[in-house]
Amino acid sequence: MRLPRLTFPAWLASLTLYAAASALCAQSGAPNAVVAVDFSNPGLSPAHWTLTLHRDGSGHFRSERGDPPANSQQVIDTPNVDRDIQVSTDFAGRIFQAAKEHNWFNEQCESHLKVAFQGWKKFSYSGPGGHGTCTFNYSKDKEIQELGDSLNGVAETLIEGARLETLLQHDRLGLDKEMESMIGAVKDGRMRQICSIREILEKLAGDSEVLERVRKRARFLLDSDAER
Q1: Of 26, 108, 110, 193, which is most buried by a Cβ count within 10 Å?
Q2: What pLDDT digit, counting tens, does each position of 77-98 carry?
Q3: Dihedral angle at the C-alpha atoms of 151, 77, 40, 83, nearest 10 degrees?
Protein backbone atom coordinates (compact mmCIF):
# COMPACT_ATOMS: atom_id res chain seq x y z
CA MET A 1 0.00 0.00 0.00
CA ARG A 2 1.38 3.38 -0.99
CA LEU A 3 1.69 6.11 1.62
CA PRO A 4 0.05 9.38 0.62
CA ARG A 5 2.47 12.06 -0.55
CA LEU A 6 2.71 15.14 1.64
CA THR A 7 1.41 18.26 0.04
CA PHE A 8 3.70 21.31 0.26
CA PRO A 9 1.89 22.89 3.24
CA ALA A 10 1.96 19.55 5.12
CA TRP A 11 5.67 19.09 4.33
CA LEU A 12 6.39 22.62 5.53
CA ALA A 13 4.45 22.04 8.76
CA SER A 14 6.40 18.82 9.42
CA LEU A 15 9.68 20.63 8.88
CA THR A 16 8.58 23.41 11.25
CA LEU A 17 7.68 20.90 13.97
CA TYR A 18 11.03 19.11 13.51
CA ALA A 19 12.91 22.41 13.80
CA ALA A 20 11.00 23.35 16.94
CA ALA A 21 11.70 19.97 18.53
CA SER A 22 15.39 20.24 17.66
CA ALA A 23 15.57 23.72 19.16
CA LEU A 24 13.90 22.47 22.35
CA CYS A 25 16.39 19.61 22.67
CA ALA A 26 19.29 21.97 22.08
CA GLN A 27 17.91 24.36 24.67
CA SER A 28 17.56 21.60 27.27
CA GLY A 29 21.20 20.68 26.72
CA ALA A 30 22.36 24.29 27.13
CA PRO A 31 24.39 25.11 30.23
CA ASN A 32 22.27 26.27 33.14
CA ALA A 33 23.00 29.79 34.35
CA VAL A 34 24.08 29.98 37.99
CA VAL A 35 24.87 32.91 40.26
CA ALA A 36 26.69 32.03 43.46
CA VAL A 37 27.89 34.00 46.45
CA ASP A 38 30.48 32.69 48.90
CA PHE A 39 30.61 34.57 52.22
CA SER A 40 33.17 34.29 55.01
CA ASN A 41 33.69 36.18 58.27
CA PRO A 42 35.43 34.32 61.11
CA GLY A 43 33.94 36.76 63.64
CA LEU A 44 30.40 35.53 63.00
CA SER A 45 28.47 32.32 63.42
CA PRO A 46 27.97 30.91 60.89
CA ALA A 47 31.44 31.92 59.77
CA HIS A 48 30.98 30.71 56.20
CA TRP A 49 28.07 30.15 53.84
CA THR A 50 27.43 29.62 50.15
CA LEU A 51 24.28 30.42 48.20
CA THR A 52 23.60 29.39 44.60
CA LEU A 53 20.65 30.58 42.52
CA HIS A 54 19.13 29.69 39.14
CA ARG A 55 16.95 31.94 37.02
CA ASP A 56 13.74 30.25 38.18
CA GLY A 57 14.54 31.08 41.81
CA SER A 58 15.60 27.57 42.78
CA GLY A 59 18.95 27.09 44.45
CA HIS A 60 20.92 25.69 47.35
CA PHE A 61 22.20 27.06 50.64
CA ARG A 62 24.94 25.69 52.86
CA SER A 63 26.34 27.22 56.05
CA GLU A 64 29.04 26.23 58.52
CA ARG A 65 29.00 27.26 62.16
CA GLY A 66 31.81 29.29 63.66
CA ASP A 67 32.47 30.46 67.20
CA PRO A 68 29.54 32.59 68.46
CA PRO A 69 30.44 36.29 68.96
CA ALA A 70 31.55 37.10 72.52
CA ASN A 71 28.54 39.40 73.04
CA SER A 72 26.04 36.84 71.74
CA GLN A 73 23.11 36.17 74.07
CA GLN A 74 21.89 33.15 72.14
CA VAL A 75 21.57 30.04 74.30
CA ILE A 76 21.13 27.70 71.35
CA ASP A 77 23.54 28.25 68.47
CA THR A 78 22.35 28.08 64.87
CA PRO A 79 22.84 24.61 63.36
CA ASN A 80 24.63 23.98 60.09
CA VAL A 81 22.30 24.33 57.11
CA ASP A 82 22.49 22.30 53.89
CA ARG A 83 19.28 22.46 51.85
CA ASP A 84 17.63 23.31 48.55
CA ILE A 85 15.84 26.64 48.55
CA GLN A 86 13.32 28.65 46.54
CA VAL A 87 13.17 32.44 46.23
CA SER A 88 10.79 34.47 44.07
CA THR A 89 11.44 34.55 40.32
CA ASP A 90 11.36 38.37 40.40
CA PHE A 91 14.16 38.44 42.98
CA ALA A 92 16.23 35.91 41.03
CA GLY A 93 15.65 37.89 37.84
CA ARG A 94 17.09 41.04 39.41
CA ILE A 95 20.15 39.11 40.57
CA PHE A 96 20.84 37.80 37.05
CA GLN A 97 20.17 41.20 35.50
CA ALA A 98 22.72 42.76 37.85
CA ALA A 99 25.24 40.07 36.91
CA LYS A 100 24.73 40.84 33.20
CA GLU A 101 25.06 44.59 33.73
CA HIS A 102 28.34 44.01 35.55
CA ASN A 103 29.89 41.90 32.80
CA TRP A 104 29.13 38.63 34.60
CA PHE A 105 31.27 39.88 37.52
CA ASN A 106 34.36 40.26 35.35
CA GLU A 107 35.28 43.56 37.00
CA GLN A 108 36.86 44.99 40.11
CA CYS A 109 34.35 44.97 42.98
CA GLU A 110 36.53 45.83 45.98
CA SER A 111 36.81 49.52 46.86
CA HIS A 112 40.08 49.19 48.84
CA LEU A 113 38.71 51.83 51.17
CA LYS A 114 39.49 51.69 54.88
CA VAL A 115 36.08 50.62 56.14
CA ALA A 116 34.94 48.20 58.82
CA PHE A 117 35.26 44.55 57.87
CA GLN A 118 31.85 43.25 56.78
CA GLY A 119 32.93 39.84 55.52
CA TRP A 120 34.33 38.71 52.18
CA LYS A 121 31.71 38.23 49.46
CA LYS A 122 32.72 36.35 46.33
CA PHE A 123 30.23 36.65 43.47
CA SER A 124 30.37 34.12 40.63
CA TYR A 125 28.44 33.66 37.41
CA SER A 126 28.54 30.69 35.07
CA GLY A 127 26.31 30.09 32.08
CA PRO A 128 25.31 31.46 28.67
CA GLY A 129 27.13 34.72 28.05
CA GLY A 130 30.29 33.79 29.90
CA HIS A 131 31.57 33.39 33.40
CA GLY A 132 33.37 35.50 35.97
CA THR A 133 34.04 36.23 39.63
CA CYS A 134 34.75 39.20 41.85
CA THR A 135 35.46 39.43 45.59
CA PHE A 136 34.93 42.35 47.95
CA ASN A 137 34.46 43.47 51.52
CA TYR A 138 32.97 46.83 50.53
CA SER A 139 32.21 48.10 47.03
CA LYS A 140 31.92 51.69 45.86
CA ASP A 141 29.50 50.46 43.19
CA LYS A 142 26.07 50.99 44.80
CA GLU A 143 24.44 48.16 42.85
CA ILE A 144 27.14 45.64 43.78
CA GLN A 145 27.00 46.70 47.43
CA GLU A 146 23.20 46.44 47.42
CA LEU A 147 23.44 43.05 45.72
CA GLY A 148 25.67 41.90 48.57
CA ASP A 149 23.21 43.25 51.14
CA SER A 150 20.28 41.52 49.41
CA LEU A 151 21.96 38.13 49.21
CA ASN A 152 23.19 38.46 52.77
CA GLY A 153 19.59 39.19 53.74
CA VAL A 154 18.46 35.95 52.09
CA ALA A 155 21.17 34.05 53.96
CA GLU A 156 20.06 35.64 57.23
CA THR A 157 16.50 34.51 56.56
CA LEU A 158 17.55 30.93 55.80
CA ILE A 159 19.77 30.78 58.90
CA GLU A 160 16.94 32.17 61.01
CA GLY A 161 14.58 29.55 59.58
CA ALA A 162 16.96 26.81 60.75
CA ARG A 163 17.17 28.43 64.16
CA LEU A 164 13.37 28.55 64.45
CA GLU A 165 13.24 24.83 63.70
CA THR A 166 15.78 24.15 66.47
CA LEU A 167 13.90 26.30 68.97
CA LEU A 168 10.62 24.60 68.10
CA GLN A 169 12.20 21.27 69.02
CA HIS A 170 14.21 22.29 72.08
CA ASP A 171 13.04 25.66 73.46
CA ARG A 172 9.48 26.62 72.53
CA LEU A 173 9.49 29.52 74.99
CA GLY A 174 12.56 30.94 73.26
CA LEU A 175 10.51 31.37 70.08
CA ASP A 176 8.76 34.43 71.51
CA LYS A 177 11.87 36.62 71.72
CA GLU A 178 13.27 35.17 68.50
CA MET A 179 10.17 36.03 66.50
CA GLU A 180 10.13 39.54 67.96
CA SER A 181 13.72 40.09 66.77
CA MET A 182 12.86 38.61 63.40
CA ILE A 183 9.97 41.03 62.85
CA GLY A 184 12.40 43.92 63.42
CA ALA A 185 14.96 42.44 61.02
CA VAL A 186 12.34 42.06 58.29
CA LYS A 187 11.08 45.61 58.72
CA ASP A 188 14.55 47.18 58.49
CA GLY A 189 15.64 45.01 55.55
CA ARG A 190 18.21 42.81 57.28
CA MET A 191 16.19 39.78 56.22
CA ARG A 192 14.95 39.25 52.68
CA GLN A 193 12.79 36.69 50.86
CA ILE A 194 10.74 35.46 53.80
CA CYS A 195 9.02 33.15 51.30
CA SER A 196 12.14 30.94 51.45
CA ILE A 197 11.22 29.79 55.00
CA ARG A 198 7.47 29.52 54.48
CA GLU A 199 7.39 25.90 55.71
CA ILE A 200 8.58 26.60 59.27
CA LEU A 201 6.45 29.76 59.52
CA GLU A 202 3.33 27.83 58.49
CA LYS A 203 4.20 25.19 61.08
CA LEU A 204 4.50 27.84 63.81
CA ALA A 205 1.33 29.62 62.72
CA GLY A 206 -0.67 26.42 63.14
CA ASP A 207 0.97 25.04 66.30
CA SER A 208 -1.36 25.35 69.29
CA GLU A 209 1.48 24.43 71.67
CA VAL A 210 3.43 27.65 71.06
CA LEU A 211 2.49 31.07 72.42
CA GLU A 212 -0.28 32.99 70.65
CA ARG A 213 2.22 35.86 70.07
CA VAL A 214 4.46 33.45 68.17
CA ARG A 215 1.57 32.24 66.00
CA LYS A 216 0.46 35.82 65.36
CA ARG A 217 3.95 36.93 64.32
CA ALA A 218 4.34 33.90 62.07
CA ARG A 219 1.07 34.78 60.34
CA PHE A 220 2.22 38.40 59.97
CA LEU A 221 5.41 37.26 58.24
CA LEU A 222 3.51 34.90 55.97
CA ASP A 223 1.23 37.76 54.93
CA SER A 224 4.09 40.21 54.43
CA ASP A 225 5.57 41.07 51.05
CA ALA A 226 7.54 38.08 49.69
CA GLU A 227 10.14 40.49 48.36
CA ARG A 228 11.20 41.49 51.86
Answers
A1: 193
A2: 778 999 999 999 999 999 999 9
A3: -50
